[in-house]
Every structure is written in structure tokens, then in C-alpha cells.
Automatic annotation (TrEMBL):
The keyword Transferase applies. This is Pyrimidine/purine nucleoside phosphorylase. It comes from Thalassobacterium sedimentorum. PANTHER family: PYRIMIDINE/PURINE NUCLEOSIDE PHOSPHORYLASE, PYRIMIDINE_PURINE NUCLEOSIDE PHOSPHORYLASE. Catalyzes the phosphorolysis of diverse nucleosides, yielding D-ribose 1-phosphate and the respective free bases. Can use uridine, adenosine, guanosine, cytidine, thymidine, inosine and xanthosine as substrates. Also catalyzes the reverse reactions. Its EC number is 2.4.2.1, 2.4.2.2. It comes from the Bacteria. Pfam families: Ppnp.
């Protein structure tokens, strides 16, 4: 995982979900691709996707259950997981929260 992004634009307005428990900022690249950098407070969440995504854990931890699975898998700093497009996934974030980078794939 890269520590920095070069030559990008950042949307200043935050993406806010679940009453402020999850926030992120959108980073746009010259090639049109985008990522979000965010933080999740402790809690249980469900997200829906349009495009496939890769979630990189930058700090903390989360338990993840992907669509079509009954298994929960734990991801921690330095790990990542892929989410299929047009699906849903569930997250359980423990005390201390989770710092993440979401890459939207086309």
C-alpha cells in the first residue's frame, strides 16, 4: 500500500453516513478513478455497492461478512478485501474504530 497519493484532487465536503459514525473524503485521480479515505466509529453497518471495491485497512480492525457468505472474517491494518459490484456487505467495527481507503474499480 502506498503511503501517499500524487497529483490528485480532494472533494472537501465529507461523505457522512450513519449519523456521523462513518465519514470519508473523495480523492479523484487524473485518469478519472476515485478512492475514498474514511474512518468508522465502533458499530454495526451495512453498505451497498454499485461498482466493485477494494477496502484497504489503514488502521484498526473490522469484521466483514460479504454478500452470499455466512462467514465473518476479520481484517486489520495492512490487509484488504474485495467487494463485488451490485452487492451488500456487513461490517462490525470494534472499539477504537477503523481507518480505511476504498478503491472503486471499473
Amino acid at each position: 500500500m502506498s503511503e501517499t497519493f500524487e497529483n490528485v484532487s480532494v472533494i472537501k465536503k465529507a461523505n457522512v453516513y450513519f449519523g456521523g459514525q462513518v465519514t470519508s473524503r473523495t480523492v479523484q485521480f487524473a485518469d478519472g478513478s476515485k478512492k475514498t479515505l474514511g474512518f468508522m466509529q465502533a458499530g454495526d453497518y451495512e453498505f451497498g455497492t454499485e461498482a466493485p471495491e477494494v477496502m484497504e485497512m489503514l488502521g484498526g480492525a473490522m469484521d466483514v461478512k460479504l454478500a452470499g457468505s455466512e462467514e465473518w472474517n476479520t481484517y486489520v491494518e495492512g490487509q484488504s478485501f474485495k467487494v463485488e459490484g451490485n452487492s451488500k456487505f456487513s461490517l462490525k467495527v470494534p472499539a477504537g474504530g477503523a481507518d480505511y481507503c476504498c478503491t472503486y474499480l471499473s
